[in-house]
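[job 0412] stage=fold_complex status=start
inputs:
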Amino acid sequence: MERTKFILDEKDMPTHWYNIQADLPKPLPPVMHPATGKPITPDDLAPLFPMELIKQEVSTERWIEIPEEVREIYQLWRPTTLFRARRLEKALDTPAKIFYKYEGSSPPGSHKPNTAVAQAYYNKQEGIKRITTETGAGQWGSALSFGCGTFGIECKVYMVAISYHQKPYRRVMMETWGGKCVPSPSPDTKVGREMLAKWPDCPGSLGLAISEAVEDAVSRDDTHYALGSVLNHVLLHQTVIGLEAKQLMEMADVYPDIIVGCIGGGSNFAGLYLPFVKDKIEGKKPNLRIINVEPTSCPTLTKGPYAYDFGDSAGLTPLMKMYTLGHDFIPPPVHAGGLRYHGMAPIICHLYNLGLVEARAEHQLATFEAGITFARTEGIISAPEPNHAIKVVIDEALKCKESGESKTILLAHSGHGHVDMAAYDAYLSGKLSDYAYPKEKVDEALASLPKMPQA
Amino acid sequence: MERTKFILDEKDMPTHWYNIQADLPKPLPPVMHPATGKPITPDDLAPLFPMELIKQEVSTERWIEIPEEVREIYQLWRPTTLFRARRLEKALDTPAKIFYKYEGSSPPGSHKPNTAVAQAYYNKQEGIKRITTETGAGQWGSALSFGCGTFGIECKVYMVAISYHQKPYRRVMMETWGGKCVPSPSPDTKVGREMLAKWPDCPGSLGLAISEAVEDAVSRDDTHYALGSVLNHVLLHQTVIGLEAKQLMEMADVYPDIIVGCIGGGSNFAGLYLPFVKDKIEGKKPNLRIINVEPTSCPTLTKGPYAYDFGDSAGLTPLMKMYTLGHDFIPPPVHAGGLRYHGMAPIICHLYNLGLVEARAEHQLATFEAGITFARTEGIISAPEPNHAIKVVIDEALKCKESGESKTILLAHSGHGHVDMAAYDAYLSGKLSDYAYPKEKVDEALASLPKMPQA
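[job 0412] stage=fold_complex status=done
writing structure:
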């Protein structure tokens, strides 16, 4: 029998996260304060985040130790497995070698707890008793509930009302781990109460949920706020994926020619590829290709300009330089899965701008078709998000079949789709369609870019 | 950091299943033909099952080779991990060592594919193109769809209509793997059409779904029928769990004092413990305790008599000697999870009758409470079924705390609850209650026992 799985021993699990800021050929553009137009200071962020995370946000130290208490929680599911997708290779009849690093074995079923656990830990260290956040479909809210639960911190999740009512499973997961989840708008905040007075049946939005979570956090001394993607410290925590993957690829005696992953805020895929980008920056692997895959219905890297924008749709956050569709951007209703963020992690945008990574947009129907092929060969039913990357992996493997090249492809598989079966149902019953966000509409959306020097 | 996980290398995965029939101190009572009152013959079963499975059903060969093609599919998720539940131990402040063998990492999320894949393989070998089965909540139907898909066999699942409509996620899983799932009663069979004519909105029952699946299978030469638990060959295939567990416990340098698992039809738990029962039969481990845990609302071993009964509620199958609540038995509506079978795997019943294993019944609310404790310590949200076993593990660990004994407890963890969050929701919102099936009602249900010599 041929080997299909590569697994690290627990004692070989990474002890440090990798900080790409130590190795960037040019530093990241600063994050700006919207009122002053000047770079933000740690004090600006202190009401929301613990100082350790604020330090990580701007640190240029190459290796940052993973606290032992965090590694002990990671141990519940880490290190995660590197799979060789032999049955997919056979079905495609390709000479390509396809590997995937699978993050679906975590309790909430995705990569998200890698940072949720770390954020809960640093908040706990600073004496924080309670963390608030927002969630759309519930993936991040459930991961943070899990993470907070492991350190005995209260977790309050403002979940977009329409998702709260339509997708109760994620809410129940949060409650099972001890978190509290309310539909947003809620009567628990001023902004929520005002909205409910005007519009009692308001379906909510991510922007509104952020406003509620932030208002809640700043109004109480014992409470902080947490973000599940985009920020530098979030990507830092996710590098545990890539560090494990590097060790495991070595164990498999290969190095990737192409790395593929899906991007919404970007933390999962960057978590996998940042340790490999290091090799590229250092000139060791000049031909390594890294393909960021996004939906055609939210084409941030492939269609958006590189500009300063708010991180949230409510316009509450500092300004970050990102490829962005404008913070007013809302993906079209036909779009079934995640990957709906208007911007992109500044680190990814910077690397893309420097030409170190590529981007590609994929249509929805083809991504589900790819997901079905994956399920019928490798078994795993993937979340709609990684299906975007699977589509590109299949394309690249079929190119190898044509050219006869035996390339090594590494897929960042962010998690399973057990709680996303409604999207599969919609696909299998012909209720989904494609939508490519047209350039004109992107230009329109960009009207929401903040009026400030777009240096 | 302390070790929490024990994992076999792929090349050390078992190559043979263990057949307890080689080592039983007394042979199993024969399976009887209801019409003749005589033991059934292989020919009686040939319209439903491939000859290799019929042979396994009665084989007394100790080790039966796992075909390489089956092991290649097992490799998608096997060997599975043995966890040390250190955070649960700490939360209970117990000197007990708690281990669990976790089967939730399979694509359908339970132990069921261990036999689904094997059954699909043997059917394929015999030239069968199509397999039918019934399913209640959908766990078995999804596992068989996955198993059939891996060998390119069509799978047709008759799913109890009310579950089909209330729990669409499992149906969508089946379709994702290429299976076909219809609500039962369906217009696809004579028995289904007759029922629909009488009662168009009939919610269906497992008995009716079995009748449809069997009628479909016997009416076509290219089609067989498959069962997901109870039968000897099903338990045989599940011994891969216990064989791995034995190797891993050795690796952890321990041997269990107590093994705990939940039983419905019994295949998951027997799969874990049969290789350990061998040690007990051989006198090597006389003090090993094996506790079968069932719900008080379906108390087969703890309340039922040991008698010949039909395997299905429709009275179509041969008669098996089992502890049984009568094949007309239906668990009360308050019961939220699986473990609803009126009888029990004949192998388990025989071992229980011989005094080699124990049984205990647990109330529903306490099992969910235990499941919440497990989720908040070990992370995994368990299916309602293994929560029954977790309740007993916690009880035994707390007894160790009182007595100061450091016993080793091994839990058979059959799978996750990602598709069972509605049951957690009902529990967390106070909508579940307890129900102990009273002895009088059991006596009443036993009126359905077939009229034949109960030798």
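[job 0412] summary: Chain B has a mean pLDDT of 94.
[job 0412] exit 0
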